Amino acid sequence: MLRVLDRYGFARDEIFAIRMAVEEGLANAIIHGNRSNPTALVHILFCINPKTFTISIGDEGKGFDPDAVSASADGEHPKQPHQSGLMLMRRFMHAVRFNATGNAVTLERRRSSPSSQAGDLSGSSCRNR
User: Fold this and answer.
1) How many C-beta atoms lie closer than 10 Å to residue 37's C-beta?
2) How far apart are CA 25 and CA 85, in angstroms?
């Protein structure tokens, strides 16, 4: 996935931000959603085009209410130990959306500027894992 982002012209700092947010989303799905159950699946669908990267990460857990997870008044320090992951995803991505059940998150990051590295990649690439 990271190599594909590079091929589509995403800058190194953008790829770093995406990697951090995706790793957090995957960790949340495995640890909190699936409760580290080795037989539970994590569903991943990601799409990349020259302007945007989008990934959906879903687990087989009961879900949660993301609106009930609130940061402290200054918006920088989580009130509870496991809130820092959500804050990280929101900081690094342009959009963070949850499904109604709260067991799937969609992360989106728009490319900050055009890059000559993107070459002739005008279409989208989507992968389902």
Assistant:
1) 12
2) 8
DSSP 78: B
Helices (H), 29-124: 84-92
Q: Spell out the per-residue pLDDT of the chain, length 129, in tens.
A: 889 999 999 999 999 999 999 999 999 999 999 999 999 999 999 999 999 999 999 999 999 998 887 654 345 555 565 678 899 999 999 999 999 999 999 999 999 876 555 555 567 778 776
Phi, psi of 102 (to 5 degrees): 85, 20
Please give the model's pTM, rounded to 2 decimal places: 0.84
CA distance 19 to 42: 17
Rounded distance between C-alpha atoms, residue 16 and residue 30, angstroms: 21
Domains within the chain, CATH numbers bracketed: 2-128 (3.30.565.10)
* Residue showing tokens 């020259």: 50
